[in-house]
TrEMBL record:
This is Methionine aminopeptidase. InterPro entries: Creatinase/aminopeptidase-like, Pept_M24, Pept_M24_MAP, Pept_M24A_MAP1. Its EC number is 3.4.11.18. Monomer. It comes from the Bacteria. GO terms for molecular function: initiator methionyl aminopeptidase activity; metal ion binding; metalloaminopeptidase activity. GO terms for biological process: proteolysis. Residues 17-251 form the Peptidase M24 domain. It comes from Cellulomonas xylanilytica. The keyword ATP-binding does not apply.
Length: 280
């Protein structure tokens, strides 16, 4: 479930380098979010992110990764993750998941947001909000957790609570299982896996130096996915809409730190009763 390969624990100095990468990603996503409106192409959004990353003399993590051709992944509506930016024109009401990674001095940051364009169905707005809440709850769980499995438990609890509250028109959400969060550091994807669901395997111990990307993917229908002929774009099998949120998080001696959040996660985690580590 979690994999049992060696984990790269980071020193506080290394976490500070990852923080620099994280802030570049945060700035790129903020710029892209501003530009994500009807009439803009996903390729134009990619150019915005590439410019911000270039301005900081950082490198895009995704570009060239197993041959991936762009800076961002932009996944629209039934696309879950790994949508390739291009000529597609965004329309009112679209649900747009935007994923960005950057490298500074060899250290990676990775984060994703979902932007719901004006005119969207209320249930689609709820989908993105539920997914974001699930991500923050998963991150908050890391703060006090003994084992990494606490993240998936917290994510699944949020989905259960949302369903019980009658969101999604009273229907079940789907929690995607084929793609999971991951360790991150000198590579974008490292051990351990960070599943978004409950498992009997409690996972590796959470200890200082652990850096992971927490990234739930939630869909309005069934959780099953397929990959399009471009060999990248992951879509829901039933055509239902999807949301993806992601942050890179460091576990430190005195707490956690959200490296790809401009404020380190202070506001969102504070609302969940979690104090952010006072580093940097
Ligand atoms: N943020 C995505 C992930 O975590 C990255 C996909 S990158 C790509 O895992 F290069 F494969 F597109
Ligand atoms: Co990731």
């Amino acid at each position: 479930m979690f994999g049992r390969e060696r984990i790269e624990y980071k020193t506080p100095e290394q976490v500070l380098l990852m923080r620099r990468a994280g802030l570049v990603v945060a700035e790129a996503l903020a710029a892209v979010r501003e530009r994500a409106v009807p009439g803009v192409t996903t390729g134009q959004l990619d150019a915005v992110a590439a410019e911000v990353i270039g301005d900081h003399d950082a490198k895009a993590s995704f570009l060239g990764y197993h041959g991936y051709p762009a800076t961002l992944c932009v996944s629209v509506n039934d696309e879950v993750v790994h949508g390739i930016p291009g000529p597609r024109v965004l329309e009112a009401g679209d649900v747009v998941s935007i994923d960005c990674g950057a490298i500074v001095e060899g250290w990676h940051g990775d984060s994703a947001i979902t932007v719901v364009l004006d005119g969207a169905a209320p249930d689609d707005v709820d989908l993105a909000a539920t997914t974001e809440r699930a991500m923050w709850s998963g991150i908050a769980a890391l703060a006090g957790a003994e084992r990494l499995g606490a993240v998936g438990e917290a994510v699944e609890d949020v989905v259960d609570a949302a369903e019980e509250a009658g969101l999604n028109g009273g229907a079940r959400y789907g929690l995607v299982e084929e793609y999971v969060g991951h360790g991150i550091g000198t590579a974008m994807h490292q051990p351990p896996d960070v599943p978004n669901f409950r498992s009997r395997d409690r996972g590796p111990r959470v200890r200082p130096g652990l850096c992971v990307a927490v990234e739930p993917m939630i869909v309005r229908g069934q959780r099953f996915t397929q990959i399009l002929d471009d060999d990248w774009t992951v879509v829901t099998s039933d055509g239902s809409r999807a949301s993806h949120w992601e942050h890179t998080v460091a576990v430190l001696e005195d707490g956690i730190w959200v490296l790809t959040a401009a404020d380190g996660g202070v506001e969102q985690l504070g609302a969940l009763g979690v104090t952010v580590a006072p580093l940097g």
